[in-house]
Amino acid sequence: MASPPLYRREIPSAARITQWRAPDGWMHRRFDWPAEGHARGSLLFQTGRGDIFEKYLEAFSHWQARGWSITAFDWRGQGGSGRLGDDTHVGHVENFAHYIADFRAFWAEWSAESPGTRVAVGHSMGGHLVLRAVVEGGAEPDALVLVAPMLGLRSPVGEALGERVARLSARIGNPRRPAWRANVIPATTETRQALLTHDVDRYQDEIFWQTAHPDLAIGPPSWRWLAEAFASTRALQRDSRLAEVRTPVLMLVAEEDRLVSTRASLRVAARLPDAKVVRFGREAAHELLREADGVRDVAIGEIDAFFDVHTGARA
């Protein structure tokens, strides 16, 4: 039997891209790719800061072929979900609570229309926001996967001082101005590709989509976004409700991640009652699902096995 096509630079013909309206009227771009035949369940995937769901079509194709109906939406203020700042190239949000409110409302609607097994996968900022929503009672997935989750930020001056600098910078100037000039972190000589993946071809997938649809691209975060990211991750790290989470969690972390704090992720994982951590070494950068095959195949395999165990179904 031939393997199904692994989409990367083409939207599958059976997938739908629509709009979802949040309770306050804000329009979000939404992606749905139903499973064929007997579905094993529904999978909601949430991307990181500045991401678009097109970057993960290869992973979606794999899971859809295993019987999962796939859904994703672009976070408010990025991708195809509009912009919140003065500069359309800058990623801005006034408060991470807006993200949580959107996810909570979307989860409620999506759950109602997705009977049966429901799982969630969150990458980077998406991992932080989905876990925070679960902790706050805004979502109850049957299983949760966090891929290189943003549970703490990497900062050349440390998280505490980094938050103070970001908060002060947001107060003394226009909080919507970019925190740095290019879409990379400061105080590093590494290229953006090196920060994300060792796989040049998969990195070019993102360039392809940005070239084909320039309106989806976004650059550096605003000072307000950065200040809110520090505050939200700090609050989640200290949230006593982590110990009350009953959802089984799989956390995939890259020990050499230059964008998020692996130490913070491990501290959070240790406080979750039912969490499995899979660690990758120097062979892995931030985007584990878009890494070279040696890393990506292990990550995908761990996720598949985790879902097999915790959802009681095998493809």
TrEMBL record:
<dbReference type="GO" id="GO:0016787">
    <property type="term" value="F:hydrolase activity"/>
</dbReference>
<dbReference type="Pfam" id="PF12146">
    <property type="entry name" value="Hydrolase_4"/>
</dbReference>
<dbReference type="InterPro" id="IPR029058">
    <property type="entry name" value="AB_hydrolase_fold"/>
</dbReference>
<protein>
    <submittedName>
        <fullName>Alpha/beta hydrolase</fullName>
    </submittedName>
</protein>
<dbReference type="InterPro" id="IPR022742">
    <property type="entry name" value="Hydrolase_4"/>
</dbReference>
<feature type="domain" description="Serine aminopeptidase S33">
    <location>
        <begin position="38"/>
        <end position="293"/>
    </location>
</feature>
<keyword id="KW-0378">Hydrolase</keyword>
<dbReference type="InterPro" id="IPR051044">
    <property type="entry name" value="MAG_DAG_Lipase"/>
</dbReference>
